[in-house]
Amino acid sequence: MTPAATDRLFSTADVRRALIDRREIALFDVRDEASFAEAHPLFAASLPLDRLNSEVVVRVPRRATPIVVYENGERLAPLAVSQLRSLGYTNVGTLEGGLDGWRRAGGEVFRDVNVPSKAFGELVESRRHTPSLSADELRTLLDSHADVVVLDARRSDEYNTMSIPTGISVPGGELVYRVGELAPNPGTLVVVNCAGRTRSIMGAQSLVNAGIPNRVAALRNGTIGWTLAGLTLDRGQTRRFPPVSAQTVAAASAAARAVADRAGVGRIHRERLEEVATDEARTLYRFDVRTPEEFAAGHLRGFRLAPGGQLAQETDVFAPVRGARIVLADNDGVRADMTASWLAQMAWEVFVLDDALSGEPLVVEEGRPDDATATPQPRTNAYKRPYEGTDNPHSAMQAYLDWEYGLVAQLERDGTHGFRVI
Prior knowledge:
CATH superfamily of the largest domain: Rhodanese-like domain
Number of helices: 19
Number of strands: 15
CATH class of the largest domain: Alpha Beta
CATH topology of the largest domain: Oxidized Rhodanese, domain 1
Strand order of the largest sheet: 1-5-4-2-3
Number of domains: 3
Radius of gyration: 21 Å
Strand content: 5-15%
Shape: globular
Low-confidence stretches: 1-6, 366-376
Distance between the termini: 32 Å
Mean pLDDT: 93
Structural class: alpha/beta
């Protein structure tokens, strides 16, 4: 796939081979998000035509990146190609036959959104047998005032909307960094929840991988499981993690570094990063994985906000160019190392910037962070996620869980993922 291939037709075999070989490619579904969520290839990313001009420059920073667009008979792909060319992209093409062509060629089709991360989470549970407990089991522990702390690994706005009683908001990338303050007694049971399964599993397994002394469990099926068990969720809670002591940071830093090393995460210094950033043959994503408040107070120029838990959950949103390089930064390495450990297992070439925020002038910006994809944006004909909000039918919640259980089998049939689990 060279610049000479501009406007060519990419076959399903072309796309699959690039994915398997880990060569750079961005596969975009230019229909609306609801249509995308009904059916798409595993590593396709949603980029509706009406959002292409405003999003693609951030999501695909290198203009020579091979980009393949598709639809399903709506005649949107030629318009997308034209828009991309007008923005200076030089290696653009359409998927031969669109989505139906992918199916006819034997390509596996997936439902929902953020599927690579969700499928990976299910693979982690199946390989590592991540400990979990049911909603009824947790309710019994809470009613008996057992020594248990519930940590909610979702975004803070999701937590504010609905949460498990007693739960504390600790977005997933913060868990290893902050758990020492939240559960200082090794006898405390640490339960991690999200709305469904992925962030519960990956959050709990992060703590297991880091070797914390506490017993750890994921809340099976998250707030969906709690609701389906007939239990009541809290609304409007604001409980949040406390500051972290130097002692806690030191212990978390050593643990996170060990996990990153096991996963094969690379290390990079500023001088080398400057060289890598000028490599015109490769796409480079630079993400600051701290909290939005820390990012706003000062960050390295060229780094976008991508809180660690959300980056691991939404790789298709933050980094749609499969095969790209990723560099992560934070102020002490814990969150960067833990996030990088997951990305490396998801077959990304990922590096942590050593001594990222020391001895370097930081950028302080007014207003919102400079990453248009860091927070949820209004979408035309958006997919109504069955695991968010409080008014979803129980049948939709159960159907979503049933779908997630089948993702490992779909991964095997698809065969393009390259995932491994440490």
